[in-house]
Amino acid sequence: MKIDISGKHTISVFQLTAVFSMLFALVGFSYNVWRMEITEYNSNVRSASFELLLQLSELESIVYAAHYDQDPVLGNPRKGWVKVNLIADLSMVTEPELSIAAEELKLSWQSNWQQLADNEASAQAVVTKIDDTRAQVRHLLKRLD
């Protein structure tokens, strides 16, 4: 510190430079950490969303095979249960709205899987929930930074 003639303390240019440099470094580092967290989150959500779209398509294929093709192999409800549970699990990595849509899909599957082969309304109820979940996934992907 320098002391001027009047006896008051003055701050040197070097001290001001050091303080501003530290503040600038702290702000820059904080922004970088925040941006990296957002980027990682978006990457995880994007990967889960693409996998969700694939699983939703495969579940829809199982429903169509069970109802329209009357194929007990391709339309096997156990495969459907695996897909529905995987969709519910993957949705947990995303946003709450998508988790809710996946849970509604699971409830619809739970209510309708036994009648898929014989009942058009059951097949349509499940397909409608698949479409709703797919729309939520698309909406989420559009919102990502």
From TrEMBL:
Keywords: Membrane, Transmembrane, Transmembrane helix
TM helices/strands, residue ranges: 12-34
Highest rank taxon of the organism: Bacteria
Name of the protein described by the UniProt record: Uncharacterized protein
